[in-house]
Amino acid sequence: MAKISYLLNAPGADKPTPIFTFLSFDGRRVKVYANRSIHPRQWDATERRALTRGYPRNGALNDWLDLLADRLTTRCDTHAAAGTAPTAAELRALAETEAPEPEPDPVEAAGHGPVFWQRYDEWVNYTRAAGNVRTAQAHATAGRHLREFSEANGYTIDFDTLTSTVGDRWAAYLLNTVDLTDNTINKHLGRLKSFMKWAAKRGYTENTALDRVSWARREPDVMALSVAELGALETLPLPVGSRLEKARAWFLLACYTGLRYSDLVSIKPQHVRPATATLPAHLRLTAKKTRAVVNVPLSAAALGIVNRLLAGELASIKSQPITNPVLNRFLKELGQLAGIDSPVEVIRYRGGVADVATAPKYERLTVHTARRTFVTLNLGKGMSAEFVMKLTGHTSYKSFQRYVNLTPQRVAEEFARFHEMPE
What we know:
Elements: E1 6-8, E2 17-25, E3 28-38, E4 43-44, E5 49-50, H1 58-82, H2 88-93, H3 115-129, H4 133-153, H5 164-176, H6 182-201, H7 227-234, H8 243-257, H9 261-264, E6 272-273, E7 282-286, E8 293-297, H10 300-310, H11 324-337, E9 343-350, E10 353-360, H12 367-380, H13 385-392, H14 397-401, H15 408-418
Antiparallel strand pairs: 1-2, 2-3, 4-5, 6-7, 7-8, 9-10
């Protein structure tokens, strides 16, 4: 992992001086200029960032430094996953691509709506520019709900008006008017809190009232396929090259590797490492979500699907990977054809009250079910949790535990290992 920190070219100067970083990786150091300058008196030498208190424009400068650091780190991680090293010229070129234009200062924007919403849009755009498109979409959705709450209640949302009482009322609005579940409300509150912390770091606000607002999260039930259900899907007769056969291949590859959808569609030839005398064929790539480098051994079945993927045999009509929503729709159709229809409870909590419904299992089948299936079945085969976590790229047991689906049969088998059971 590359280590990045910023320095001033002439910290003792009485005029603006260029900002640069020494990028350290694999024992090498490369000097990369950030394509920005700043007066030393506006620079925090301890935090190695631009001061924002009294210098509101510097928030945009810090955004650029964060974006550049993300670009540099991503490029180094991509090369590390491929077993190569970036050139100095390649890294320096990343600073030549401009960041999105910063929003104007509040004084200049007086006629264009509340400053709060300008800064919120700036946050969403910054997240999107950093490559986190789906996260940016989630931020935008939270903002849309907050705007609708503001309009419905005739309440102006701004940095100074976001009190803990308003936060409580917004949560109640999300529950009673928008009809969201407790987990979704918890996520939206978390996004708004993240925005306020982001804004505080840039000197836009000192309001911390939302820190006192909370909404209980309820852990959802984890659904995974059993060995028999996975076998039914594997043996389902389908025409080779049909849309459902391609969808099954994507899903099975996720079941065999535990990879997220975002990582499946990112597999390139350089990620495939052939078998050696000491190691089996495996994938080595950088996970999109966590940026962690993962090494996933490939079974014969998984390697066969990877070869088809790289040959373009699993692409959609537009020669692109199948999209997540379309794949999820096809999987429900596949699950029904394979007879994966045992009834499962769907429990959603709203205001702490359980809303229980029953549906055939195939209706809840998504590509993420494959990752949970990978974890559940490998634990059932006796693999240690630590080993499975290494394969999935989880860094904490708390996040990993949400994927564990201990079936009644597995619980009974484990109990029998340590206790004498009746005949």
